[in-house]
Amino acid sequence: MTLTIGRRFRGPSTSGNGGYVASLVAAGLGVDVATVTLRIPPPLDVELRVLDGPEGLLLVDGDTTVAEGVPAAEAELEAVAPVPADDAREASASYPGLQRHPFPECFVCGTERAPGDGMRLFPGRLGDGRTACVWTVEPDVAKDPRFVWAALDCPGGWSAPIEGRPMVLGRMTARVADVPEAGEKCVVMGLLIGSEGRKTWTATTAYGADGRELGRAHSTWIRVPTE
After folding, report:
1. Which InterPro entries match (predicted)?
2. The pTM is what?
3. Rounded CA gap, 107 and 120, in Å?
4. Measured in whole angstroms, how far is the alpha carbon of residue 148 from the centre of its chain?
5. In which residue ranges of the chain is pLDDT below 50?
6. What does the alpha-carbon distance between residue 80 and residue 190 come to, in Å, rounded to a whole number?
7. What is the pLDDT of residues 66-78, one digit of tens each?
8. Which of 160, 152, 39 is nearest to 102 (CA)?
9. Rounded distance, CA 223 to CA 227, Å?
């Protein structure tokens, strides 16, 4: 089996968005909860092989492992409490990425992506360690668990000062419970759990317009060198 990460689904300008790539690996496991570890920045527009690994699946570029997916325990995941949609929308107005963004082309949170091209999740900080934003679901990403995984990515990263401390997703454990409808206005929450050295730990939860849970995740982020 092979798969290719299209350039549309980039995070940094030259590699795949971590949450989206993790969803592709997780889909092959056939489990409710999965952990995906990204070993290198996922290359774009390259045919990658999906292989059986010691405990799950490997995503491989030649002889190099790009990502590894394994089943995980649901007990590891806690939900981030939501805020009303109006509060989430207000928080987005102060999204730090509007002023300073390390990856402005990101499929999920990039400010340079037009509606219908990127997901345009703009998580603003609430002052209590959480972020919040509204995800208006475009028809081409509706009813698809891959994009719930993607939505569970960046709102966590922005709970830390990523604009001055660029980070990329290193590991994500997620469970998708439901998928959104086209046009649905969902609330996505992030939470800063802690940081040490180059690592930061976050949680995210996505909610449908009716309050139902779409998915939750815990993630490990790795700080990247800056010039």
Report:
1. HotDog_dom_sf
2. 0.96
3. 7
4. 8
5. none
6. 7
7. 999 999 987 779 9
8. 160
9. 13
Structure-token match 């992030």, residue found:
190
Output the DSSP codes for 146-178: HHHHHHTTHHHHTTS-TTTS-EEEEEEEEEE--
Which residue from 137, 155, 165 is spatially nearest to 80, judged by alpha carbons? 155
Tokens of 104: 């402005």
Neighbour count for residue 32 (Cβ, 10 Å): 11
Q: Which residue has the tokens 């109006």?
A: 86
Q: What is the DSSP letter of 139?
A: G
Q: Where are the domains of the chain?
A: 2-71, 75-223
Kindly indicate whether the domain formed by 75-223 is annotated with CATH number 3.10.129.10. yes
Question: Distance between CA 94 and CA 201 in Å, rounded?
Answer: 22
Neighbours of 13 (CB within 10 A): 13
